[in-house]
Amino acid sequence: MQKYIQLSILQTLQFLVWGTWFVTAGTYMLQSLHFSGREVGFVYATTSLSATISPLVLGVIADRFISVERLLSILHFVGAILLYWLSQINEFNLFLSVMMAYMICYLPTFSLTSSYCFHHIKDVKNDFPKIRVWGTIAWIIAGILVSYLDIEDTSVPFVIACGFSLLLSVYCLFLPVTPIAQKSPLTKKTLFGPELLTLFKAKSFSILIIALGLICIPLSFYYSFVNPFLNEVGIANAAGKMSIGQMAEIIVMLSLPWFFKNLNFKIMIFIGLLAWGVRYGLFAYGFNHNLEWIIIVGIALHGIAYVFSMLSAQIYIDTIVPNHLRSTAQGFFTLITMGIMALIGTFIAGELVNTYTYSNATHNWAAIWQFPFWFGIVVSIVFLFLFKSDRQPDQL
Hints:
mainly alpha, globular, 396 residues, 17 helices, 0% strand
């Protein structure tokens, strides 16, 4: 029980750091630092750019050179320094550079934290959702805290996140030690050679990674443009309404062990992929017919979309890779999903929004949502026909 409490606290602190500043940084940059919309876009693009650089490399390091909890401590300590520095900067180029450095430190901690939890729990399917749910709860709490303090347009969220990051750095030093699975020299072959390629010997792994990578293209539309969409169509308390997605995520996450027992893994992933596309169809329909409740249903689908696809996939990946490649596999998963494909999705979303912008600065949202809607539908159907698990359902 003590170990599960420790892991739950780890997830809570991990998302308190992220949730405290990430959702309000755009407001701060636009209203207080007076960055342009394009400049704000460049800052947020560092998330995807850094995810193409650091998670895989640091995952390999965690598998071979330094225990995961020690590496997490170092990354969060450096991250705390960078967060405080960001709170003191008002010049765009320096802000962008420091943010990139911070993202290189922080983004890998998502996959490293997951791989650490997988190593220290006995039943990943049943126990990890109960631990991971505290991250979602922490995200909601962080948003409420910042909103209650009325500091969205200030640098204070960066300072608060700095404090959480320092606390997390110290906390990681007291976590149970994770033995280094396999020591080997860090070479080009180690990063991109046979050991990484062994992950793709399982056809299911390749298909799963490709499908989840592709679905991150429509996923990027959600994080970049759903909030502006809700505000433009006149939905009150848009940020609060978006939290319905996280609340649904909590419910589905806690129910995940039941779904693992009663649904085939392939069907779960299919439903998750399908949900990413269907929600945009609901956004378009709600926009065309002025039906707010339809749009809210689309927001609530975030729970099924994220848990059934991304979270379930992380658990599945942990079951099919060798122990000494756990962190490497999770890092590669982050590289493909949060990195390369999310970056492509952000670019496509921006171009579509620009294309369907009217002269009065409003948008043809029905047309914008068509692409992620159909893209998500096609990806889910192709996955359904091509994916065949290399393990039986009872082995998952």
